[in-house]
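Bumping with the actual sequence this time:
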Amino acid sequence: MELYTPLHAGFLKYCRGLTGNRDDALDLAGESILIAFGNLEKLRNQDSFKSYLYGIARRLRLHYYRRIRFRGVFDEHLAEMLIDQSAMPDSDYDSKVIYGLLDRLPPKQREAFVLFEISGFSLKEIRELQGGTLSGVSKRLQRGREQLRHWLEPSVEKPQAVRPGAPRKEEG
């Protein structure tokens, strides 16, 4: 304390000048003093305690200014009223249809499809989550896409499972 006592009045004035009000100045001074005395063993020369303490206060205030740039007041009611300018009027209906069809897919296919197409996971990441093989994940995605395509475009012929060794139907 003998290092700080002679600096007290001037240091509080300095903090008040940095912050602009008494309460914030007291908070800044208190935090600076805690840091200074917590790291006092790092101070090589006690004669430089004043510049050490003022430097801590300055860096804390700069850090505060950097952090406050990213803060804002969030008003939930106002956020709900914002209109998404990029959304098409019928996209909400389309989303409901797609999610309704996704619910009809088998659980593993649905999960693979959502992870890949909507959440942007890689095939390897999906394999790690779902287990199995990479080709199994790829096959689930393929089958899910084909089934969704069939439901969305009924004129598309539903894919048939082909048994190994069975002759395939020629496309003409």
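The tokens above came from a reply further down the thread. The helical segments are 8-19, 22-38, 49-68, 76-81, 91-104, 107-118, 123-130, 134-152.
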